[in-house]
Give the backbone structure.
Amino acid sequence: MSLFGDLLSTIFERRALTFSPGRRDPRPLEELVGALVGATGEVTGLAVAASILQRYQELDDDAKLAFFHHLAGNMNIDPDRVRATLDAYQAEPGKQTYRAFMSAVEPDRQELLRRLNQIPGATEMLVRMRADLLRLGGKDPEIQALDQDFRHLFVSWFNRGFLVLRPISWESPAHILEKIIAYEAVHEIESWEDLRRRLVPGDRRCFAFFHPAMPDEPLIFVEIALTADIPGSIQDLLAEDREPLSAEKARTAVFYSISNCQSGLAGISFGNSLIKQVAADLASELPNIRTFVTLSPIPGLTRWLVAEDIPFADADPKRLRQLAAHYLLSAKRPDGLPVDPVARFHLGNGAQVHAVHTEADTSEKGRVQSAGVMVNYLYDLGKVTQNHERYAAQKEIAASSDIRGLDAAVRKQDLRRPVSEQPAA
């Protein structure tokens, strides 16, 4: 890391919370919450915050949900006060009326979370608290409103400016490597030897974002293969007996796995910054790398085909490629964005749908979610900004001519008819 990153890590050094059983605050948790928000002394506030975090960790799920309902219902905004302060500001705009309005529209639970976060190690605990909130809250409107307060604060606390990009190598600390194995969400790492094959060869890279307040917890990581050409098969890319390529001979960087690590940070986007930063670093380190692509799953493909009654079980490779291209370009949500979550992520980052491949993931998971089909998203560094802007403003999907041709071949067909009855495309 840079000197600045080292300084941040020192400033925000994660220390284990220590509690003295003899000093345990006996007041009910709800009373402690009110006391913390109303505390004026720093020492008293820190002691109360430590007690709240300790007590929370001891709760079962029912008690945690009750705690969240208390925050949602009893520490919410007062609509009458919001309206009154807004009327006052509208009548006489100024520093005092604006301050009163801002105070009214911010619920006390936001200040509670800020004060809890003053305890060393609290950031990680609050991330886990939000993970509990998302797991237990379901579609409860009150809980969803409370989650917006967590998300509002986390967007600031986990701003890109605070994140530190670190390479992950075989020499990284064992506890970090263990978490890479545990958090891998795309292509399971089956053993330490499997991990070694992804980190040690000269044509393999891995990078992760960390936050100075959580230096032992990766937030998101990406695994990269350096190759001569754009690959069309994950099993070839990860084959045990493959021949490593000299990094200097590589022309392509393949982002083949991107894993978010913290469920409590769901909805806080790091992937865009991660891919662009890593691509820039690789381009600087290895000027011979000209192409940046993914080899990505299509997790919603078979589910969509089944839901639309589109036969695909007996489809040949050409037909599967057509159906995959059609799904990626034409299957939309009511808001006009692609149904597929991986497509939304990469297209939102400014990538282009470049190519689709059959028999690309022959694992059970790959067969179930996409009939073995995978897709390359191309990150053309000279066009990502333009692609992103068109996607964001007009929901326009950037795609290669090959992908558009595959989509056009099936667009006018009755896709619900059996494959054998379809006219030649």
Observations:
- Residues 308 and 406 are 19 Å apart (CA to CA).
- DSSP finds 19 helices and eight strands in the chain.
- The chain has two domains: 3-12+24-157, 162-421.
- Residues 141-157 form the longest helix (17 residues).
